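Quick one: structure tokens for this chain, please?
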Amino acid sequence: MSDLEDRLTPLRLRFIERLHGNLPALLELRPKLGDDASRTEVIAIVHKIAGMAGTMGFPDLGAAARKLEECLVDRPGETATARADLDDLADRITAVVAKG
């Protein structure tokens, strides 16, 4: 393992822990995506995931988070699409957390 990988390992583990904590919040907010406050809360969560996922070695997770964020920001009325995107992101989060 390189020195950079050694230094990133604790950050990666914290990121995975944060994902584990974010998942229930995202799933709780899922039915409320038509509500402005709930949508804003989901945007804040997925923006952070999108920003960090690639650096932590999860580019597919980052892409899924960006897709959901873009939907929520650019097409706020498309709640069915946003819910499908959130389901995809939740599946990816679950897979990352399971692998640790």
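The longest helix spans residues 3-29.
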